[in-house]
Amino acid sequence: MRQVDIGQAGDKYFLIAVGIGIPGELAENADREAKDRLGFLAYAVSTVQAVRNAEPVQYTITVDGERRQMQGVTCLIANGGNFGIRV
Fold first, then answer.
1. How close are the terminal C-alpha atoms of the chain, in Å?
2. What is d(CA 84, CA 17) in angstroms, rounded to the nearest whole number?
3. How far is CA 36 from the centre of its chain?
4. Of 1, 14, 16, 74, which is most buried with the most CB atoms under 10 A?
5. What is the pTM (predicted TM-score) of this model?
6. At what angle do helices 41-53 and 22-29 cross, to 10 degrees?
7. Residue 81 above 70 pLDDT?
């Protein structure tokens, strides 16, 4: 057994990453019906919709007790040493 670090966004917890704003919209819009109908293209359509509808919002994050505020159309928080594939 070992300790693992988890993140929290609102009342939801996550282990690897959380995307708010454009990533959340993208995931919501590329639903099962769209993916069945369009395949991988559903993500491209969803991305265009999410970017077109994006409006800046105020984000407040607290990391290790330090609170920061910023404005943007997306917030991606990764809870790990690497994000992606390392070759």
1. 28
2. 11
3. 23
4. 74
5. 0.59
6. 140
7. no
Indicate the SS3 state at residue 32: helix
> Do the Cβ atoms of 57 and 74 come closer than 8 Å?
no
Altogether, the residues listed in the chain come to a count of 87
Q: Is the pLDDT of residue 87 over 70?
A: no
For residue range 8-33, list pLDDT tens digits in order: 888 888 888 788 888 888 888 888 88
DSSP classification of residue 55:
-
E strand map for the chain: 7-9, 12-14, 17-21, 57-63, 66-72, 74-78
* Helices and strands per DSSP (H, E), number in the chain: 3, 6
Residue with the two structure tokens 């939801």: 12
